[in-house]
Amino acid sequence: MKDRLRAVFCDHLSIMRGKYLPNSKIGDHDTRFCQSTFGVHYDKDLLPSPGSMMMEGLPDMELRWSADDIRPCWENGTQIVLGDLYDAAGTPLAMCPRGALKRAVAAWEAKGLTPKVGIELEAFAFIHNDEGKLVPYDSLGGVVYGTGPFTDPRGFNDAIWDVAEELGFKLDMITAEYDSPQFEYTLTFDDALSAVDDIILFRQMAREVALSEGVILSFMPKPIVEAGGCGMHINFSFTDKDGNNAVASGDKGGPDHLNDLARGCLAGLLHHHKGLAGLIAPTANSYDRLQPASLSGHWQNWGGDHRNVTTRVSTEGGAKARLEHRMADASSNPYTAVAAVLQAALLGIENGYDLQAMETGDGFEQTDATVGAASDLAGAIADLSSDTVLSAAVGQGLVDNHVFMKEAEVEKTKDLTPEQLRDFYIFYI
After folding, report:
1. Taking the domain 4-94, which CATH number applies?
2. Nearest-5° angle of CA 222, CA 226, CA 231?
């Protein structure tokens, strides 16, 4: 067959949705979906969420894309494209996560700065045993920073690497993480929109390639109760009009060499810490990970080369200077998560928030910080609803839809056992 087009978008639940379309659609084009998709939950429940128009006839929305954004897909005879969503009147859809990121980028560009982003993804691998039960992938002698067959006996990560290389994904690394069978995937820095487009497609590709090898690769925050969690660390910086790294203060990095831009970004992230959690750690399972003494970004704090703070200041200077926000997990939509982090950082610049002192505690037994993220999804959503400034910056329509769906999720998951909670999410995240 001629190449077909897989036209996709990443929705409010971080699920990829789309259509296969004929070869004639490979170019500047569009296709329609039901807008009430934004009222569909993981369990297929259709809810009257704000913006979904479920009670207004379930009308269409439109996905539009540019030919320049079409790229080869990992499926044979297929090309793939991410697009932007519009309502029936041709207005950008308020709930569109990719649109939220574009607005965040534009807000920074209005200040003469271009956001650059690098994302680290962590995941656990599962297989079905002889009885058909989902169990952790047996990585035999898997260790942190492990490579080779003792870490990945089936070699499914080799298959992911081969496909990524063939399709032009700019891999920075693949390695085993602290807990087995846990893996980390990192792509190189790029302009914010390109970086997030790439990580969303890479994540989907990795899950589908792993599945072809008999492996369920899950980016759930904490699918194994006894093991650690999986984050989605957001590294970011900005280039100025001359192409220089705007968060750098010369060749030296770290807390002793922060410039005003970096300090303002840190202040914004700390000020909106509790509200951010509701957007970037957005599932019930997120709060099994987002706890004190867990290297997860629970505390409202910052530091230098310190993995037990929420925002880590790189010790590298010059072109590699950056801030690393460590709270998010990949149950969040990466467009929404990066948009929220960038908007919170910008609010710090615009509103002149004071920057609290750097964390001096170890993060395990002692912390200076006294404020942390909520202990559960219900609390985090309440904190997000209370943070009207952050909500307005990210996009009120998106946040209103998000809050409604997540309040429903609290009720849907409140009585589930850990295994039932895992199974509620694992085939979607």
Report:
1. 3.10.20.70
2. 25
